[in-house]
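Q: what sequence does this backbone want?
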């Protein structure tokens, strides 16, 4: 897999303030007791950030050969009994919703705590040959956790999680390559986001009888994950014995947030349980039915947690491609209003997010733009209009100077498309 690398974004600054504090200026999300704790409302600027992250996730999934699928957020309780989620996580799931259809039609529906059982049944809906594998299903899917109110926190701990989720179905001989591919994609996503991965955690089994599968199977799977980590050159790996999920070992990409807490951004998880529970097979070369291997992989991560981490990492001043307002155009006075509108129209025609600020003193408008963390400020006075230029300030890079209007559009469009830094000196 070969990803085109954008210009590097700086991520060496220490984490900033808590995202909940930053949100008071940025208006990314809101909460309301009438909606409920842990159920944030995405405001327009937050929706822009989330939409860009979802687009990144979809682009990476497509480049990886994933197939897009959709599945319902509800299912019968029986599905999660079969998958093992009910036995292990019932206390973290929302209560069942009984539906009475009379007699044998009675159903108990539940909000899903995970997407994997749906993807397992998506795979099972058709017969598969060894030649088709690996099959990778991708979905940007909501799932639900009945988190206690005491642990809920802004966007970092919520009750509805919107997850960039992929499940791979492959042969045993493909596991190491698929784990490497998944890890490469997750690291690529974090590089694009400018997020430093502090370390990767390999969660292993111990001698507890709670783990499913044979010890030899686990040992081979753990070794495959080690090989994947070695292949991509992760700087630090921490092995955590006894920390694996009951159904398989996993890799977690870890970052430290603005409060010094470790957060999991993306995962690569092997699963021995669901292929058995749902009898997932493929036709081998000799015609026999063989058990498929299932891998859970996250690339960008959950929208809520990633947005919280990004806000804290950048102290609210997101890279151009993520910024809700990419350019704030400000005429010095009314005589430059028409020119400011023309500049804004050209930028919008190039697909950029622009706002034009006319009201109030120029100083007040600049302060408001800085407080909103707009990516670029573009000021037009009499001299700039006469020269066909704008005075540009990008706080994140420290750039300040006069730029021709058409050059500004080209530079910003190029940086936005590449999800990279603006090449001001180009």
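A:
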């Amino acid at each position: 897999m070969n990803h085109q690398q954008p210009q590097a974004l700086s991520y060496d600054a220490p984490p900033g303030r808590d995202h909940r504090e930053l949100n008071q200026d940025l208006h990314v999300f809101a909460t309301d007791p009438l909606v409920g704790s842990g159920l944030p409302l995405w405001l327009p600027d937050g929706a822009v950030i989330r939409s860009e992250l979802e687009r990144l996730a979809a682009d990476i999934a497509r480049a990886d050969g994933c197939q897009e699928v959709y599945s319902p957020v509800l299912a019968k309780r029986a599905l999660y009994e079969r998958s093992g989620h009910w036995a292990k996580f019932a206390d973290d799931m929302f209560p069942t919703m009984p539906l009475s259809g009379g007699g044998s039609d009675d159903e108990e529906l539940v909000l899903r705590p995970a997407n994997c059982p749906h993807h397992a049944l998506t795979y099972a809906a058709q017969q598969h040959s060894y030649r088709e594998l690996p099959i990778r299903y991708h979905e940007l899917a909501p799932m639900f956790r009945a988190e206690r109110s005491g642990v809920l926190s802004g966007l970092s701990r919520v009750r509805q999680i919107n997850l960039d989720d992929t499940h791979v179905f492959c042969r045993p001989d493909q596991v190491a390559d698929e784990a490497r591919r998944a890890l490469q994609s997750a690291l690529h996503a974090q590089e694009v986001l400018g997020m430093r991965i502090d370390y990767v955690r390999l969660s292993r089994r111990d001698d507890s009888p709670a783990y499913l599968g044979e010890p030899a199977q686990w040992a081979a799977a753990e070794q495959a994950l080690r090989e994947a980590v070695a292949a991509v050159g992760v700087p630090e790996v921490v092995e955590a014995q006894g920390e694996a999920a009951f159904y398989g070992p996993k890799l977690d990409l870890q970052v430290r947030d603005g409060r010094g807490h470790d957060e999991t951004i993306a995962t690569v998880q092997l699963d021995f349980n669901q292929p058995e529970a749902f009898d997932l097979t493929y036709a081998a070369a000799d015609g026999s039915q063989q058990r498929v291997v299932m891998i859970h992989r996250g690339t960008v991560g959950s929208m809520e947690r990633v947005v919280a981490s990004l806000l804290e990492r950048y102290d609210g001043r997101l890279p151009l491609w993520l910024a809700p307002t990419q350019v704030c155009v400000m005429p010095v006075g009314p005589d430059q209003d028409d020119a400011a509108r023309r500049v804004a129209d050209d930028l919008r025609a190039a697909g950029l997010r622009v706002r034009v600020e006319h009201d109030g003193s120029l100083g007040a408008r600049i302060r408001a733009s800085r407080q909103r963390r707009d990516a670029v400020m573009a000021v037009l006075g009499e001299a700039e209009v006469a020269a066909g230029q704008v005075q540009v300030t990008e706080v994140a890079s420290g750039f300040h100077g006069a730029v021709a209007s058409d050059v500004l559009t080209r530079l910003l469009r190029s940086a936005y498309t590449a999800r990279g830094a603006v090449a001001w000196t180009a």
